[in-house]
Amino acid sequence: MKLSAVTPHQTTPPPRRPASARPSGSGRPLATFGVVTASIAVAFGAGAGSPLFVLYQHEWGFPAWQLTTAFTVYAVTLLATLLVAGSVSDHIGRRPVLVGAMLLLLVTSALFLAADNIGWIIAARAVQGMATGAATSTFTAAIIELASPRHRPVMTVLTSAAPVGGLALGALFAGVAVQTSDHPTAVVFIGLAVVLVYGIASVLAAPETADRHPGVLASLRPRLSVLRAARGWFWSLVPLVAAGWMFSGLFLGLAPSFDSSIFGIHSAAVNGAIVAIQPMAAAVAGIAFGRLAAERATRVGALLVFVGAALAVVGVAAGSLPLVIVGALLGGSGQGAAFGSSLRILGPLADNASRGGLFAAVYLVAYTAYGAPVLLAGIASDFVPLTATVVVYGSVVALLAATAALSLALRARRTDRPWLAEGT
C-alpha cells in the first residue's frame, strides 16, 4: 500500500476544465434527493445483515465463526475495493461508478433471496462489500459537488450521516421484519432493490460533476491518495475516525451475540433496536453537530466516544443493559460529531479532481476499524468469554478516542499560539 502526497500540478492536467466549470448546485433537486436516498440505501443493506444473520444461524445451525465471517467478509472486500478503485471516479466520472455499484447491489439482493446456506450469504456479503467500497466515497464526493456553495457544508454533514443512518435503519427494519414476517429476507431485499432502481434513475438524471481525464489504470494501484494540503489534518483525524467506526462495529458486529448471551434478549425486534441505537445516535448527532465549528466538534466527539466506550464496557462487565444503552447513545453521538466534522475539515482541502481519492482514504480507515476488530473479536470469543472480549474491545476504542482527544487539543493549541508551530 502506497501513500501518495498529491500536489496540485499532479492532479490538474492541462486539458481538463477547472472544477468551477462543472455544475455545482445546478442539478435537478429531485435527482439530488434520489442520489442522497440511494447513498442511505447502500448502508441500509449492510445494516440489515445483523438481525438476519442471527436468524440464519438459528435456521441453518452453522458455527459462530461463520457468523463472524459473514459480517467481516463485507469489510474485507470493501477495503480491497477502496484501495484499488477508490480514486476511479476522479478519472471516469461519478455516474459510471455509482451506477455500476448499484447494479452490483442488485446482484447482492438476488444472492440473499436465493440463499439456502451460509455459503450463499458469505458470497452475497463479498459482492456487497465490493459495491459499497466503490459507492461510498463516490457518493460523498458527488453529493457535495452537486450542492451549491451555500449548501455545501450542510450536504457534507448529510453525507457523513448517511452511512451510519443507513446502517441503523437497516438493522431496525430487518429486526422488525424477522419478528413480524414469515419471509424477512424477501421483505428487506425486494424493498431495497426497488430503492436501488430509483437510485440508478436519480444518478442518471443528475449532472456529472467530475471531468474525465487520463490515469485510470494507474489509479488502480493500491494506495491512499491524500493531497499534500490535507495530510496534516488527515493523520490527526485518523485515530478519531478509527475510534468512532470501531465503536460502531462493536454494536453492529457483536451486539447480536452479547444481547443474547449476556442479557438474555431473544426478540429479533428488540435485538435490532439495540443494534440500531448506536448508528442512529451517530446519524442524528452528525446533523446536529453540523452547526458547531468543525474543529471544536472533533474534540467534543472524541470525548463522547471515550465516555460512551467506557460506559459500554462497564455495562457489559456488570450485566447492566441500561449502561450499555447510555454508552451507545453517547458514543454514537461522538462518532457522528467526529466523522461529520472530519469530512467538513477535509472536504474543502480537495478539488473535484481529487476529492474521491481523499474520501476513499478516509473510508478506508473507517471500514478497517469497523471490520477488522470484529473479526479478531469473533476469533477470540472461541477461546475467552465474550464479556472479556467486549471489555478489551471497548478499552481499545477508549484508548483511540483518548489519543485523538489529546492530538486534537494539541493541534488547537498550536493554532491558537502560532509561534508553537514554527519550524514544524
Question: If you had to describe this structure to a student in words, what would you say it looks like?
Answer:
The protein is an all-alpha fold. It has one domain: MFS general substrate transporter like domains (Growth Hormone, Chain: A), CATH 1.20.1250. Helix 11 (231-261) packs antiparallel against helix 12 and helix 13 runs antiparallel to helix 16 (386-416). It has 16 helices and two strands.
CATH superfamily: MFS general substrate transporter like domains
Strand tally is 2
- Which regions contain 5 or more consecutive residues with pLDDT less than 50? 1-27, 418-424
Q: Radius of gyration, rounded?
A: 21 Å
Terminal-residue CA separation: 26 Å
Task: Please state roughly what percent of the residues sit in beta strands, choosing from under 5%, 5-15%, 15-25%, 25-35%, 35-45% or over 45%.
Answer: under 5%
CATH class: Mainly Alpha
What count of structural domains?
Answer: 1
CATH architectural label: Up-down Bundle
Question: What's the shape?
Answer: globular
Helix content: over 70%
The main β sheet shows up as: 2 strands, parallel
Helix-strand category = mainly alpha
**Reading side by side through the largest sheet, how are the strands ordered?**
1-2
Mean pLDDT: 83
Order of helices and strands: EHHHHHHHHHHEHHHHHH
For this structure, the CATH topology is Growth Hormone, Chain: A
Number of distinct helices: 16
